[in-house]
Amino acid sequence: MKILMGLLVVVVLIVGLVLSLPFLIDLNKYQDQYKPLIEEALNRKIQLQDIRLTVWPRIGARVAGFAVLDDPAFGSGPFASLSSLDVGVKLMPLLSSKVEVEEITLRDPVITVIKNKAGVLNVSTIGRKGVPVPETPSRAPIPSTEGPLKILALLAVDRVSIDGGKLTFRDLSASKPTEYVLQDMELLLRDVRLGQTPSLHFGSLVQPFNLPVKLDGTFGPLKETMDIDAINFQLGVGKTDFTITGKTAGHDATVNISSPVINTANLPIALPLKKPVDIKNFQLAVEVKGQEARLNSLSLQLFDGEVKGQGKLIAGSDAPPFNGGVAVQGVQLGPALDAVAETPVSISGTAGADLTLKGRGFSMPDLTKALEGTGHMAVKDGKIEGVNLLQEAMSILKVAGITLDNPKATAFSTIETDLVIKQGIVNVQRLLMDSHDFQATGGGTIGFDQTLNLGVTLNLSQGLSQKIAGASPAARLALKEGRLSLPLTIGGTIQAPSYGLDMKGLTGAVQDQVKKKAEEAIGGLLKGTTKPQDMKQQGRDLLKGLMGR
User: Fold this and answer.
1) Which of 377, 467, 391 is nearest to 426 (CA)?
2) Cβ contacts of residue 241 below 8 Å, gap of 6+?
3) Which end of the chain has fewer CB atoms at under 10 Å, N or C?
4) What is the number of other CB atoms lying within 10 angstroms of the CB of residue 541?
5) Which residue, of 193, 208, 241, is where some domain finishes?
6) Number of domains observed in the structure of the chain
């Protein structure tokens, strides 16, 4: 009994001693030793209020009031701060004088990532070996491969977690500075060791969109550099899921992104669309080499058709230069135009196009100034809803008594045209339109500001030409070889087009007819087959035919 009591007393003393260790051992007095080591590893000045041993729920240490100051080139405030940092170690290796970290927990971290006007991130100098932290504001540093990932790789820990907190991203490089916040963050990293492939879970709520984001997957194996041989993630953005794969090597990377369905209403970016659009079978392959980003392939299904593209962009400026090409096949033009804008006139049909583009910047002023391109477009079996070109022509000619099947639509079998884009203007060249009752040819311009300046000549079928010519004296001016040729002008804007008759073109038609008749009459007079009085009568008949009386 005495032995048991003695053992119990010893156990109580040991437990009491262990529990009192946090109060007996003051780790703060060692700050002068470990603080410079941490600052050198992070390449940042740090602050901490208190550090203590912990014995429950695991042996380790707790750092309170920890803050990492920002690069003076970006500001004097903290880059990151947290209420506490808990580090737990494994007991058995500790008994053998070996320290193996089991878990690191960051509680309520507040992180501010800044992108300055030069496009450089304040995280780019974290952990840059041999680069001193400047005492005064300095020129923004160049991004380095010796970043946070290297520090993470040098750790040997089973579990890294974030409990609460927020991350703010402030972009000062845009013309209008923007700010986004990840709040209610949760993060869990497992198997963080050199040579291992960590697993990652991350979740947050993105403001100002109130959009939930979730990321799960693996990346690795971890190395002392930024090189990652394999990236495999599943990203959830609201109701949209993406699969992300790829690899990195220094500043170079290859990334592949795919998604079965993307609804534009669920994206956290404002698109120039009037209605939500479903993008199906989205596939994207990008290769980054330094500041050059190359879009190796883009494919997606949109409006029952297929869109493919490729291109290249050079980053590092407010208006980055780019070039590329787009191929469109089988797109239903009606729903596509309805999603972009609501206009009184729209075009339906199955569309295809091939475009080659180059430019600089993506704002409308930049595109208007620098976007250039060429291409070809064709639309099959469609309608121009909201206007009937024949009806407009007959209204100008004051034709009455002829009824069209649909006075508010122009049906066609084909519209084809070549396009040239330059300085905010789309030049429509070699326009050809085939319909049951007419063929139209012409060209002109369409401005980025939606202004129209088109000239179209309607060459009507012989039967319809005779009907219109019989009902309108003015129409006979344009009658040639039994067919009516009406030169129309289309002006105004896409929202409010206006139509007119090209009188210069009609005058030319009248001159041709008068010249032909005159040549016939003079030729007969010279040959003696026509008498002067007959020539006079032919002149009267010509005027009667032209004027209808």
Assistant:
1) 377
2) 234, 235, 259, 260
3) N
4) 11
5) 193
6) 2
For 63, 78, 107, the CA distances from 47, given in Å and listed in that order, are 10, 9, 16
- Is 145 inside a domain boundary? yes
Asked if residue 462 is part of any domain, the answer here is no
pLDDT tens digits for range 213-268: 999 999 989 887 778 999 999 999 988 999 999 999 888 899 999 999 999 888 87
Identify the burial level of 42 via C-beta atoms within 10 angstroms of its C-beta, where 0-12 means exposed, 13-18 middle and 19 or more buried.
buried
For the stretch 42-68, pLDDT in tens is 888 888 888 877 766 677 778 888 899
> Per-residue pLDDT tens for 187-202?
999 988 888 899 999 9
Does pLDDT of 415 surpass 90? yes
Pick from 338, 433, 426, 419: which is nearest to 385 by CA? Answer: 338
- How much is the pLDDT for 138? 40
* CB-based contact 391:406 (threshold 8 Å): no
Q: Which of 135, 160, 193 is the last residue of a domain?
A: 193
Nearest CA to 266 out of 239, 234, 301 is that of 239
Residue 460 has pLDDT above 70, yes or no: yes
Q: State the average pLDDT over residues 333-338.
A: 88
Q: Which amino acid is at 358?
A: K
Tokens 């940042």, residue? 44
In a domain, 261, yes or no: no
Q: How far apart are CA 444 and CA 492, in angstroms?
A: 13
Three-state secondary structure along 184-226? EEEEEEEEECECCCCEEEEEEEEECCCEEEEEEEEEECECCCC
In angstroms, the CA 523 to CA 529 distance is 9
In a domain, 328, yes or no: no
3-state secondary structure of 509: helix
Tokens of 287: 């290769």
C-alpha–C-alpha distance, residues 17 and 12, integer Å: 8
Q: How far apart are CA 342 and CA 267, in angstroms?
A: 22
Q: What average pLDDT does the segment 23-34 reach?
A: 60
H-run or E-run covering 358 = strand 350-360
3-class secondary structure for 152-190? HHHCCEEEEEEECCEEEEEECCCCCCEEEEEEEEEEEEE
Choose the weakest-confidence range: 149-163, 171-185, 312-326. 149-163
